[in-house]
Amino acid sequence: MKTSKPKETKTESNYTAKDIYVLEGLDPVRRRPGMYIGSTGPEGLHHLIWECVDNSLDEAMAGYAKNIEIILLAGNKIKTTDDGRGIPVDKHPQTKKSALETVITTLHAGAKFGGKSYQVAGGLHGVGVSVVCALSTWMKAEVCRDGFKHTQEYAKGKVKTPVKKGDTCKQTGTSITFEPDPEIFKETKFDLKRILNHLRQQAYLTKGVRIKVIDQRETPEKSYSFYFEGGLASYVKYLIRGVTPRHPNIFYGTGEKDGILVEAAFQYTEEYECFEESFTNNIFTGEGGTHLTGLRTALTRSFNDYAKKNGLVKESEENLTGDDVREGFTGVISIKLREPQFEGQTKARLGNPEAKPAAEAVVSETLADFLERNPQDARAIIEKCILSSKARKAAKIAKETVLRKGILDGLALPGKLADCSSSQPEESELYIVEGDSAGGSAKQARDRKFQAILPLRGKILNVERTRLDKILAFKEIKSLIIALGTAVAEDFNLEKLRYQKIVIMTDADVDGAHIRTLLLTLFYRYFKPIIEAGFLYIAQPPLYRVQSAKNISYAYSEEEKLKIMKKLPPGVSLQRYKGLGEMNPEQLWETTMNPANRVFLRVNIESARDADKIFDVLMGSEVFPRKKFIQTHAKKVRNLDI
């Protein structure tokens, strides 16, 4: 096995029209865009940019490009430019058209299906730029090659102009400018934050390549530049910002096995969550795959071997499991191989079986060396894994005590739960309310057929700082878990959820906001599939009751209160609700629980990693990041109770 650092070398080829391989036509893309870009929502819209950038990154990985630029233009247009070789413009032997026109207007046409133009490539399907062409109202390609600039324009996948040979140019490269088709995409406005996050990630993965983003949609324009020499080690350092590392040195290992280049980096933190990212040829594989499995296997085996060899655990003791090893782990693996096999058109999971032994071998060898050279890091990591193992065993005992079969089957629901009569989850609602007073009002106000009430006494445990065995000993959380019916942790089963609307209903004051945050933390950490399925809501009780004579109105915000009061004569009676218990059952039903009138906010996770970071900052044990967050966002706060 060769474990030397992989070098970025230029492949020996001329890269001409004969290197472009044509498989089929372009027509299906406009009919079924979701098959090619995943969706026609924001993800699919931004996927158009990624497809163009992937082609530029392929040039960079082949050693031909060093600079990539993305410009957000007025009118929802995007321009991507690289200083690579430029798409060939000579006549294609199969289509008898220029290679440029063939690549851009033909599905599955590209240099990645054969020949030696690309040893590794991200856009393996060869659909990238052609799909962008098909889903754009207008697109222009500009290629600097052979001393001249060549230009061609397109519309909705069709050629608008022939390839025009223009002025001379000394450099080489390709520019693609496109405008997404509003007939395909309901929203065509690009999100700068999403673009920056993705391209920052790509810059970490392609060290030595400069990626520049310019937003010209507003004056003055904004410019951002990403360039990292440290590669994945720099990326891990970025990912763990704001949390406490468990050990000082970031592991970084790279090597080659059977023609597959493997690069991995990780560091453990004092958090309990595990964060893993995996990439193949710079494509993010959000659902993992064989390379991630190889990394996990290498970690578990290496730590067990080191722990036994150095007497950190006894030979007679159980081995550390994969779950023990992943607690507090933040790591990234990136592999590059010639013919990746992805499951699904959007490349979410790697399927190549040979990637597992390659990743496992390279990580095992480089990690063994890291542990021997850094014994203090090794001890700190393994001590955390051992602590995780003990907590896992304690949690297992606690779960067996709390989540007995009879309880899971709904035979012993908590006494404080006022359940609904319906047994159909799709129509059943569970209201989580604070205190017995609000619980009493809610029980009287509800529709018993489909609305259940679970009152909680006081503030629940902050699960961000607590292991599962301690969480399961907390009475209020235990009641909630039993009421939900799903079990928890690795035993969690969404299909056993007893309610498909779970509503957090707390008072409109500081204590209510705190309880709501604690509950959101619990659901995010231990019941995330409930959020992802769209089953978690926040009730919006009114802030004010406005009465003029016999006319009664409810205001759910300060702005709404002012609008109502402007329409009424003097002598208005105004009541500010701070607690649900202040409402009588009829008012609570009419304003907050009646499906015809109520206002619910559905909880969703736009970015799991960003959400994870915010929970770490706001609910974690470190004071300084929380103080900094509050100072940064203080001016944006509304409806702060003093």
Q: Which CATH architecture of the largest domain would you pick?
A: 2-Layer Sandwich
| Cα-based radius of gyration, to the nearest Å | 29 Å
Number of strands: 26
What is the CATH domain class of the largest domain? Alpha Beta
What structural category characterises the helix and strand content? Answer: alpha+beta
What is the count of helical runs? 21
Biggest sheet, in brief? 9 strands, mixed
* Percentage beta strand: 15-25%
Segments where pLDDT lies below 50 for 5+ residues? 1-9, 405-411, 637-642
Keywords: ATP-binding, DNA-binding, Isomerase, Magnesium, Metal-binding, Nucleotide-binding, Topoisomerase
Domain Toprim: 428-542
Cofactor: Mg(2+)
Family: Belongs to the type II topoisomerase GyrB family.
What attributes does this structure have?
Heat Shock Protein 90, Rossmann fold, disordered C terminus, 642 residues, disordered N terminus, 5-stranded mixed β-sheet, 9-stranded mixed β-sheet, alpha+beta, Ribosomal Protein S5, domain 2
